[in-house]
Structure formats: C-alpha cells, structure tokens
Amino acid sequence: MSERRLSDFIKAYDVRGVVPDQLDEDVARAIGAAFAQVVATPEGATGVVVGHDMRPSSPALSRAFAEGVAAHGLDVTLIGLCSTDGLYYASGALGLPGAMFTASHNPAQYNGIKLCRAGARPVGQDSGLGEIRDLAQWSLDRGDQVGREGTDRVGEISERDLLADYAAFLRGLVDLSTVRPLKVVVDAGNGMGGHTVPAVLGTGAGLPELPLDVVPLYFELDGTFPNHEANPLEPENLRDLQKAVVEYGADLGLAFDGDADRCFVVDERGEPVSPSAITGLVAEREIARAVADGTPAGDLAVVHNVISSAAVAEVIRENGARPVRTRVGHSFIKAEMAREGAIFGGEHSAHYYFRDFWFADTGMLAALHVLAALGGQDEPLSRLTASYDRYAASGEINSTVTDQAAATQRVRDWAGEQGDVTYDELDGLTIHHAATSGAQGDSPLWWLNVRASNTEPLLRLNVEAADRGTMEAVRDAVLSVVRAG
User: Fold this and answer.
1) Closest CA to 384 of 233, 212, 167, 182
2) Is 255 helix (H, G, I), strand (E, B) or coil?
3) How many CB atoms lie within 10 A of CB 296?
4) Mean pLDDT estimate for the chain
C-alpha cells in the first residue's frame, strides 16, 4: 500500500505537489501509465508529447512519465524545455495528447503536470483526471508503477526540438515586421519566458530580426526564482519591470509567469494595464481580422469570465460580435470557446485563448497582438488602452470566512436594500446595479461578484463601478458585511 495519497495533490485541473514528498519519479511513472490507459489509447493516439519547465526536478519527472506511457505501447516525443503554450502548440501541431511538467509560479519545492488531449483539449477532473488519479493510485498501492498486463509492445522515447516551429507559428498569426521600432522590457522572472522570448521576439530560433529592442530582465532559467516569484498577478512582482520601463524610456513592459502561459503588460509610464483592457484590445483585433477574412461580425463570439470588466462585453458588442460570459477557470473558458467556436477568450488573470491556437491559452500570442497594435500607430500605450479601461475596479479581495454560504446571503440581503439590482449565480453571486437618475440624485452603475474558494475557507470579492468613489464605497460596505460573521 502506497503511503502517498494522490488526491492530496491532484486537483480539479492539474497535478501540483511537493517534490519528492508527494510527487517523485515513481508517482510520475504511474501517472504516465494511467494517462496512456485513460486518455491516449482510447483516443486512438499513437503517441504522447511531453515537455517541461526549468525546475531542477522537471527533466527526471518528465522522463519517468514518458516511461510509464511507453510501457503501454505508445511512442513518446520529449520536446524538452518549453513553455506551457509551447506544449499546447506541440499537442495541436502533432495531433497528440500531451503533458507539461510545471508548477507555474509555485515555489521551487513544487512541481506538477498539466495534461491535455490531442489538439490541446483540456484534461480536468470531469474529463479524465479523476480516472487517471484513481488508476495511478491503484498501481502504486499494489507496487506496480505501470500496470503492464496485456501490453506486448514498449513504445519508443525520442527527443525533438519544436521551439523554432512554435516561434514561426506564432509569428505567422501576427506580423510584426512592419511595425514602428519599439523598445520593450521583458521580465521573465527566471521562468520559461527566458527561453521563448528570444525565439519569438528575437533571432534565437533563427527567424528574421523584428523592429524590437528587447531589454531582458531575469532571463536566466532558474527554478529557485532568486529575484522574485514568477507570478505577475501579485503587484510586488511587477516592481522591477515598472522601474525598468521608466529607466530605459521603453514603450512598454511585458511580464511572464513561471511557465510563460500568462502575460501581463505595463505601459510607458510603468503603470500596469488591466488584463480586461488587453482582452478588449485583442478582441477588437481578432474580430477585425475575422471580418476582413469574410466572416460577418454577427457570427463571431468572444468569451470572457464573470469578473472581467463590463468594458469587455461593451467592446465586443461595439465591434458587432457577441460576448459569451462564463465561469472563472481555464477549463470553463476552453469548453465554452469550443462550444461556441469563439475566436478569442480572455480572463482577468491574464490567460488569453485563441481559436487559431486550438482554443488554448498563450500569453505570447497576446503579447504579439499588443506589440502589433502599439507599433501600428503613433500613440503611447497608455493612450491606446484608455478606451478599453472604462471603469474603476477593486481587483480580487479575499476574506477568510468559515460559513461562505451565510456570508454570501448577507451580501444578497445588503444588495436588496440598494435599489435597482439584478442577480445571477453563474459563478458565485453576481449583483448588477443599474445607473439611475432621479429626485434622490444620481445612482451610479456598479457590479460585484462574490465567489467561494473550492479549496480554502475564502470568499473572493470583485467590485467594479463607474467611478472610484462608488467602487470604494461598495467595496468597503460589502467587505464589512462579509466579515461581520
């Protein structure tokens, strides 16, 4: 009987555990074997593609996973160091199920696995991950990491470098060759952006030089993250980039997370540009491109989640397309995009999804769109993005709450006293307050969302309003109600 309980670190969307206490080579091998049996073989796949990030444990873990897959007769292509969207590219281009070994921005002692079906389709708790976990646990419990009964052939494990192909594919989607010269500071946070940025934005993969002057910050691959955590969602992790953009007189700054699938943008003043504004900007570009190719705007859908700015849906409608609102989380976004055939999708967390990238997320492609938009006109980025940044937002605020349902009900009761409000429960509780004008004075527009964490006793609050004063008043009132218990 194995002492490890895989349910402790195989969660709804991926595997994320401490090395070696939870995740070691034996566990990786068992998960690889289970992945072959649950996903790859039933799909009729002839092989699996595997990549990994810069963490010290990643090469050995990815090799062990490959051995587990190969034990079930499937060939494995190891593509080595890559970003998560590089693995998605490989899965899509090769038509193979895939596995990416990364723990994204988590500390150095962690590692993990993101799994996908052929064509970069997600594998989550409801689409195979639970079965993989249970089968791997069964194999470990009986002391057999691969469970090879009935398997005659052992697959071949080979290596292939797809970095140049990945870079060329992205450049083929967004042409930067004719933009005005731009100076861009890039903070890779010692993560995989240090591997992919020189290939895509520079000449590291043998592609032609672009009119970009890239100033690198922390491009050295180091899974111990010696300079700062590779999570640009936390404001303190953007400080060095903000300072460098101003010091170098750069046109913009880009920050990537540890596995380089998310991209954050800083304008020429060193001010962060909200991911919702980037979603609006890229949505407008993708709609225009599809229309130029002959698709009526009314036939186009763009997906956004419930806590994206209200400006996102406005921009999509203004450009003639249809906004589709969905729950927070990449599995929901990807599923909705596939269902709708959406051309683009964006999240507040700076995950950006593209129909032309197998409905998967790629921060690098979003960065190319921002560079193309900025370099295609003469205004600074702050002015370019102003039209997409229309409201005052609180950002996500977490409160420790023991009884999340009771706290949510208190927020609903409070909102019922605020006048013209509507409710929906697509993801948590969302409350919209319409702007009104009457004898009692103007009542500004605002909306809020409260969502319970699935893994912690937390209630997450997001507030957006027509002006900062209204946003702060609603935010403070709701926090008081939430924390009253």
Assistant:
1) 182
2) strand
3) 10
4) 94
Q: Give the pLDDT score at 444.
A: 80
Secondary structure (3-state) at 353: strand
Give the residue from 411, 379, 414 showing the smallest Cα distance to 397: 411
Predicted confidence at residue 225, as pLDDT, reads 95
Q: How many residues does the structure list for the chain?
A: 485
Q: How much is the pLDDT for 125?
A: 81
The arrangement of secondary structure in 6-161, i.e. its CATH architecture, is 3-Layer(aba) Sandwich (3.40)
Q: What is the DSSP string of 44-84?
A: T-SEEEEEE-S-TTHHHHHHHHHHHHHTTT-EEEEEEE--H
Query: Whole-model pTM?
Result: 0.95
Residue 480 makes CB contacts below 8 A (sequence gap 6+) with none
By CB neighbour count within 10 A (0-12 exposed, 13-18 middle, 19+ buried), where does 3 fall?
A: exposed
- Active site annotation includes 104: yes
Where do the CATH 3.30.310.50 domains begin and end in the chain?
Answer: 392-482
Which of 224, 34, 255 is closest to 111 using CA atoms?
Answer: 224
Choose among 310, 307, 295: nearest CA to 342: 295
Q: What Å distances lie between residue 480 and 282, 407, 466, 477, CA to CA?
A: 37, 10, 21, 5
Amino acid at 348: H
Give the class (CATH, top level) of 164-273: alpha beta
d(CA 223, CA 54): 6
Distance CA 374, CA 179 (A): 8
Distance between CA 394 and CA 68 in Å, rounded?
Answer: 46
Residue 221 backbone dihedrals phi, psi, to 5 degrees: -70, 120
Label residue 479 exposed, middle or buried (CB < 10 Å: 0-12, 13-18, 19+): middle
| Helices then strands, each counted (H, E), the chain | 15, 25
Separation between Cα atoms, residue 62 and residue 9, nearest integer Å: 17
Which parts of the chain sit beneath pLDDT 50? 438-441
CATH class for the domain made up of 392-482: alpha beta
Query: What are the beta bridge partners of residue 423?
Result: 431
| pLDDT 10s digits, 101-158 | 999 988 889 999 999 999 999 998 888 999 999 999 999 999 988 876 556 789 999 9
Q: Where in the chain is the domain with CATH 3.40.120.10?
A: 6-161, 164-273
Task: Tell me the C-alpha distance between 407 and 424, whole Å.
Answer: 16
Catalytic hit among 58, 91, 104, 309 = 104
d(CA 86, CA 1): 37
Q: Can you read off the two tokens belonging to residue 381?
A: 């980025």
